[in-house]
């Protein structure tokens, strides 16, 4: 998060007048479990990218390359929707 | 300008016709029903451009009004009593989102027991919800205050919702002589509504009402408190502008025969009119009495209260609501708080609770109050607890206590 603003510097009524500024709000510290990718099992179907509620699946040239750990809250949806035959994403306890 | 015979409800409906809001959402409740009935007739007759939304409850009425206001519309609703109580959750949301909604409230008692008549319990409960509250003494003031409220609410340094109140039945259903301004005078006075943020402005997308946690919630609430302070500074400028178009000058408070008054009685709403009559009568008998009407109750006119009470020997404060469990009624609490720590800290103040559930307050009752205040002035003995005026059994109760030598 940027430096916190003072009360008289804020838009009226707590309006967010800058679209997409949720990117500045780092929610990675909320995580208990973090997703870990086994790239050898991944076939880049990108179902995880469709389902991730926090835009935290990083894709480059149509390929899954990793996770945005600054914003991923560790909800585990990516691991859940990863197809049974691949199971390329596993959730592991943070700080282990 | 034209003179019309209107009830308080009709006068406010007339003001709303001239304001011509973009959206009005409403649900009927006695004694507000007649107000919206009249306004929906204007809608049906095509006299306004308003999108009229008939909803299934007051919670929805204010929610729809909040939605319309956030979308960028000039939006209004009106209610009473249980309706205001049902709006409770949304009152704070309208204020927190800083939406300039104007809502006439026709004051009525709260259940239980169920009662449809006038007292101030409904709006007094909402006094700290972040809404500006303006009380009207008569139909003329209800009309004027509704128009003024639009300018107050929409002032860019204020941006707060405003309740304009009038006493249920006593004002809402009594026909009076009302001076109504010309339509285009009102139109020019209120001007176009151009909010800085509107949800329907798709070229400048905004989010309203987002999650606001430990890091910013407090800052937003602090800013909201400052908006109320700004209102306290700016309402007089808007009142002054209204004087120029109407010839009627309003202020935060209205003093009556106060300059040399020893005894001053403070009140809100229609009772202030009765007090003026009694003051005239007692003045003829040589008693130095005066009245002080509070028109703007939120923000509370703390400086004016101090100023106008500075020469008083004793003060009575009339509350048409009980603040259960509190040392005194809500208006009295505010008056005492405003004087605390000033040179008037020790000014004797007696609180009178009266008129609940539409119980009449007569000139006779007010003469009694002035007489009691005169006794307090001479004896210096100030009752600690509120006096209940016009309730059967109270005099026996006080007698009983006096016999038992319990100091009240």
TrEMBL record, chain A:
UniProt entry keywords in alphabetical sequence: 4Fe-4S, Electron transport, Iron, Iron-sulfur, Metal-binding, Pyruvate, Repeat, Transport
Cofactor names: [4Fe-4S] cluster
Ranges of residues in domain 4Fe-4S ferredoxin-type: 33-62, 63-94
Domain of life: Bacteria
GO molecular function term, any single one: metal ion binding
Pfam family, one: Fer4_21
InterPro entries the record matches: 4Fe4S_Fe-S-bd (IPR017896), 4Fe4S_Fe_S_CS (IPR017900), PorD_KorD (IPR011898), Pyruvate_synthase_PorD (IPR053389)
Transferase keyword on record: no
Subunit structure and binding partners: Heterotetramer of one alpha, one beta, one delta and one gamma chain.
NCBIfam families per the UniProt record, alphabetical: PorD_Arch, PorD_KorD
Protein name: Pyruvate synthase subunit PorD
Native species: Candidatus Kryptonium thompsonii
Organism placement in taxonomy: Bacteria, Pseudomonadati, Candidatus Kryptoniota, Candidatus Kryptonium
TrEMBL record, chain B:
Residue ranges constituting the Pyruvate flavodoxin/ferredoxin oxidoreductase pyrimidine binding domain according to the UniProt record: 14-238
A Gene Ontology BP annotation from the UniProt entry: response to oxidative stress
A Pfam family annotated for this UniProt entry: PFOR_II
Domain Pyruvate:ferredoxin oxidoreductase core: 261-366
Single Gene Ontology MF annotation: oxidoreductase activity, acting on the aldehyde or oxo group of donors
Protein's name according to its UniProt entry: Pyruvate ferredoxin oxidoreductase, alpha subunit
Alphabetic keyword roster: Oxidoreductase, Pyruvate
Superkingdom to which the source organism belongs: Bacteria
């Amino acid at each position: 998060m940027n430096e916190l603003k003072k009360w008289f510097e804020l838009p009226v009524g707590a309006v967010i007048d800058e679209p997409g500024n949720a990117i500045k709000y780092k929610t990675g510290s909320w995580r208990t479990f973090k997703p870990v990718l086994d790239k050898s099992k991944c076939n880049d179907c990108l179902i995880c990218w469709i389902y991730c509620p926090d835009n935290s699946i990083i894709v480059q040239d149509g390929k899954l390359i990793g996770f945005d750990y600054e914003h991923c809250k560790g909800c585990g949806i990516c691991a859940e929707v990863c197809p049974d035959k691949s199971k390329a994403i596993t959730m592991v306890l943070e700080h282990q | 300008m034209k003179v019309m015979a209107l009830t308080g409800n009709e006068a406010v409906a007339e003001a709303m016709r001239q304001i011509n809001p973009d959206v009005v959402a409403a649900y009927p409740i006695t004694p507000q029903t007649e107000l919206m009935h009249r306004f929906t007739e204007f809608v049906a007759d095509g006299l306004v451009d308003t999108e009229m939304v008939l909803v299934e409850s007051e919670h929805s009425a204010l929610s729809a009004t909040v939605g319309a206001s956030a979308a960028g519309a000039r939006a209004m609703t009106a209610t009473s009593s249980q309706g205001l109580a049902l709006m409770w959750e949304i009152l704070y949301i309208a204020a927190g989102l800083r939406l300039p909604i104007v809502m006439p409230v026709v004051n009525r008692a709260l259940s239980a027991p169920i009662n449809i008549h006038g007292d101030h319990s409904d709006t007094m409960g909402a006094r700290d919800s972040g809404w500006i509250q303006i009380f009207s003494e008569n139909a003329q003031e209800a009309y004027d205050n509704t128009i003024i409220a639009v300018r107050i609410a929409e002032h860019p340094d204020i941006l707060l919702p405003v309740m304009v109140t009038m006493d249920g039945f006593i004002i809402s259903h009594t026909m009076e002589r009302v001076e109504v301004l010309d339509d285009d005078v009102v139109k020019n006075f209120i001007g176009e509504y151009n909010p800085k943020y509107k949800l329907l402005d798709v070229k400048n997308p905004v989010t309203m009402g987002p999650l606001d946690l430990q890091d910013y919630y407090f800052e937003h609430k602090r800013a909201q408190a400052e908006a109320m302070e700004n209102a306290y500074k700016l309402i007089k400028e808007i009142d002054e502008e209204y004087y120029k178009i109407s010839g009627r000058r309003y202020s935060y408070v209205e003093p009556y025969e106060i300059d040399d008054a020893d005894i001053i009685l403070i009140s809100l709403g229609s009772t202030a009119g009765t007090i003026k009559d009694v003051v005239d009568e007692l003045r003829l008998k040589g008693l130095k009495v005066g009245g002080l009407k509070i028109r703007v109750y939120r923000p509370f006119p703390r400086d004016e209260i101090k100023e106008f009470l500075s020469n008083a020997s004793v003060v009575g404060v009339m509350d048409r609501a009980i603040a259960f469990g509190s040392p005194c009624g809500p208006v009295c609490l505010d008056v005492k708080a405003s004087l605390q720590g000033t040179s008037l800290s020790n000014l004797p103040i007696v609180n009178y609770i009266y008129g609940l559930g539409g119980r009449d307050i007569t000139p006779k009752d007010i003469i009694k109050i002035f007489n009691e205040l005169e006794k307090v002035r001479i004896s210096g003995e100030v009752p600690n607890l509120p006096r209940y005026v016009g309730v059967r059994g109270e005099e026996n109760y006080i007698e009983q206590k006096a016999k038992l030598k319990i100091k009240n």
